[in-house]
Amino acid sequence: MKSLIFLIAILGVAAVAFPGDGEFRNSSGNTIGYLRGESVRNSSGNTIGYFKDNGDVRNSSGNTIGSIESNGDIRNSSGNTIGKVTSNGDVRNSSGNTIGKVTSGGDVRNSSGNTIGYAKGNISQEQAAAFFFFFFKDLL
Description:
The structure is a single chain. The protein has 2 helices and 12 strands, in the order αββββββββββββα. The protein has helices at residues 2-14, 125-135, and strands at 22-26, 31-36, 39-42, 47-51, 56-59, 64-68, 73-76, 81-85, 90-93, 98-102, 107-110, 115-121. The protein has a 12-stranded antiparallel barrel. The longest helix has 13 residues, at 2-14. The chain starts with a helix and ends in a 5-residue tail after the last helix.
């Protein structure tokens, strides 16, 4: 009986994703990037940036290129709001126009509702929006 309880406990721990670990995938389901801890990596595993715990977004050199605020605002390095993720996952640009959506299940859609990618694992809606729409889209 103790062995069975131990086995169940081990399997339960193995099923839990570590904070900040996940994959970014394109619309075909192919992996185009990873999040490992705070490190954002391309499909080759090279670090292209960081999502820091304090909300800072940094490039591969460690320079702050923006931030993700607790209210969903996405800011550039000058502190100007360049976008926002609303509580229902809508992604808006600085003019308030909806440019996409990140569903609670990690589907990433453009403004026409077409799926452009997926965020799988322990990736927040804000991190997915920052990756696909604002900071790392041109580096992939």
